[in-house]
Amino acid sequence: MLIEIYFLIQVALIPVIVEEFQLSLLEASLIATAPNLIMLLMNIPSGFLADHFSPKHLLALSMIIEGISAFFVSQTRNFWTLVLGVSLLKVSSPIYHITGLSLLSRLTSSEKVGRWVGYHNALGNVGTAAGLVTLAVSLSTTGWRLTYMFWTFPVLFWSIIILRFPHFGVEKAVKNDHSKNKNGLKKSMLVLSSNFTILLIAIAVREIGASGSNTYMTTFFTDSKGLSETAASLIFSLGPFVGILGSLGGGFLCEKLGAKKALCWNIFGCAVTLLLLPLTPNIPFLIFIYTLYSLFSSALWSPMNTLVAKFTPEAKRGMGYSFYFFTEGLLASAAPTLAALIIEFTDVWLLFQFSALFLFASIGILLLLP
């Protein structure tokens, strides 16, 4: 929950940053692209760490980095130091997610991974929602920096609790797994199997569409729909609240339909609702369609993470999630700038058609999986 507090705040702040620092939309996109690039570079070493070191210490480290970086952001008054602070904050994300998801997949049976990832993501959405609500309150009172300051202390306090927590019981088993398979069973250790490679390509194509539209959602609300920055942040914050139900529903669908079918249907729902968003005639209908989009967006993570666990060997699960997050991060770093160029030369609402096209293409690639 706490690691996701700042997940969408810098994206929701783009209209505010444009006004405060007198930037173009393309310049302001650095607040999304630079942190994503840092996350990209951290993915592979994070996978190595997750496969070889104690989950307890890595989880605590991720929260210490998050807390200190958030405090730094709350004190900055320059755009470039803001970008630096948010980028450092994002270092915590790959360390946490690769360690946490690897640990989760090792603690439960393969049949129940989807369900537990659903619970995991639901709590993540609670954190994201709490961060955005805090931002909306901050924007209407003392300013956005209060949001970063407010959550610093709970995050650092929780890192102490993690350090005092007993070991999770997988360290010895993973260490033994590595020693036994050091020179043998090479085929089972190959992370990039044909099925996993197909999955990564599908993830990459989906990310191009999803990252661009998510980055400029609040810009769409303010520029195309004429909402205030505070109102746009409040509507944007509905996404994580709905995501709590979506994550739980995604885990349920993953068990009932299978991971592949559940993922395809959720991506299809995202594409259709993105196409409908620019056509909304009034604010209530806009909120309804955005709520549906958020529901489908959050429901796809359980089947996606389940497929990663399915197509990677247990002892290399950390590296499997590294490739997964590296692929997402690579496209997430480039997509916001590409989306900004589309908006600069056309209009923000055309971005959703561009996004939907890539989402439909990713479904076609996923159908190649067994």
Structural commentary:
This protein is mainly α and 370 residues long. The protein has a single domain, classed as MFS general substrate transporter like domains (Growth Hormone, Chain: A, Up-down Bundle), CATH 1.20.1250. It has 19 helices and no strands. Helix 4 runs antiparallel to helix 18, helix 8 runs antiparallel to helix 14 and helix 13 crosses helix 14. The longest helix is centred in the middle third of the chain and has 29 residues. The two termini are 33 Å apart.
Describe, in short, the structure shown.
With 370 residues, the protein is mainly alpha-helical. The chain has helices at residues 9-12, 14-21, 25-28, 30-52, 55-75, 79-90, 92-107, 113-139, 145-164, 171-180, 186-189, 194-215, 217-223, 229-257, 259-276, 283-299, 301-310, 317-345, 350-366. It contains 19 helices and no strands.
